[in-house]
Amino acid sequence: MNKQSQSSPYQRAGQWLVAIVSPLLLLTAIPGCKTVNSLDDIQQKKTLTVVTRNGPTTYYESKLGPTGFEYALAQEFADSLGVELEIRTAYNLDALFEILDRNQADIAATGLTAPGERARDYRFSLPYFNAEQLVVYREGTRRPRKVEQILDKDIMVLARSSHAELLRKLARDHPTLRWRETTDLETLDLLDMVERGQLTYTIVDSNEFEVHKAYFPLVRRAFQLAGPKPVGWALAHKPTDDDLYDAVNDFFTRISEDGTLDMLKERYYGHTSHAGQGDSHTFALNVERRFPQYERLIKEVAREEGIDWRLLAAISYRESHWNPRAVSPTGVRGMMMLTQTTAREMKIENRLDAEQSLRGGARYFRKSRRRIPKQIRDPDRTWFALAAYNVGMGHVRDARALTKRQGGNPDSWSEVMERLPLLQQKAYYKQTKYGYARGMEAVIYVQHIRSYFNMLDWQQVDEYRRKPPVHVTAHLPEGLRDVGPLIAL
Length: 489
Ligand code: GLU
What we know:
Blueprint: H1 39-45, E1 47-52, E2 60-62, E3 65-67, H2 69-81, E4 84-89, H3 93-101, E5 107-113, E6 122-124, E7 129-138, E8 155-158, H4 162-173, E9 179-182, H5 187-195, E10 201-205, H6 206-212, E11 219-236, H7 242-257, H8 260-269, H9 277-289, H10 291-305, H11 309-320, H12 340-345, H13 354-370, H14 380-391, H15 393-405, H16 413-419, H17 426-429, H18 439-461, E12 472-475
Parallel strand pairs: 1-4, 1-5, 8-9, 8-10
Antiparallel strand pairs: 2-3, 5-11, 6-11, 7-10, 7-11, 9-12
The structure holds glutamic acid (GLU).
Glutamic acid binds near residues 112, 113, 158 and 205.
């Protein structure tokens, strides 16, 4: 519907990884646009309209189509109602709430902290997770540990965010607290400014930080400014539609009980748990320095062998850090660290030849993927195949059997992932068919590749981005108010 995208290249000097899809659209009031937000309306129009913002924790278009945690939740909800999902993206929180106020969307889904001052104007669904509000700083500068240490410092947050609300509250007890609020930047921009030393502190929700920190190796958690707070969907207060509100809450109750919510959390946040920031930083450097030499080759081989190039790039990075001459004492070698036997099986003559190695690895991965039971669908299918690529199919089967014995779902990667490390313990592996396996290593292997894959995915998605002019409002303590406007960047 009222979607329009504009884009222009955004590149951070010398750094590829500012992975930001920022909102390209500002949705404004459309005269005559039909009022929505009653369950009846939704069912009649057969469309649920959800407003969100672009971002890795919310919604973005990837090469494989729309994705993101909020998007996936909204799609689930639309499916449960048997209607189509229409996504609208707002450019900032202000625009988002305005869309809701004008009843141009049924629900706002964008990691909103509930309910605080917002309770006056919006109804919040049951929470789908809790997030801490974190102060973050740049490594190499002094780490603050409490609010007294950030008074009188340069802080910037999103206008109309729960973070701005929190600062307003704190300012009552700490009159020298000052900060700026921006309507034109996104969380990722603020993190980027901290990374580059252009901003001293910002505040970010912990779930967002977990996902974003991979892209900002120098941005560190300083301290928790507010404890875990519920995050939920917002619905307009007026007109109030109890049926819609109840349907949303029934939906959240159901998906918490039947495991869908956990599955989605794992899918969208699961990769963050094993990738350390240092490792991400090294990856970023390698993408900049080494990857360009192999990019064409990787893309070409991936296309010819029928695998996603980002996956091939992520696997080959994990295997050899893109070093075609890599050799390990265990006898595996080359870009994809193939054994002699695998190479022969995959019809590869020279393992130290980058192209051959990539080809051999891609074929081996596909073979492993084909052997995963049919009912397991992507993305789990890919993670299972990677685990099997690393530790062997037999052990993956054992871990699935163990999962089933323990009452878990053997087709879910997140559930099997929890059991794989048990194959290292005698009490467990003695009951299995294939015995001991380095299960933890396989889990870390998969999670690392997921994380590299995501970073490459973001790089692709965000090559184009409009960088808006920056408008900030300064909240200064008395006495500092006459210093004039503060303009960032
Ligand atoms: N939790 C924040 C809020 O409610 C929004 C999340 C974000 O900063 O992106 O304002």
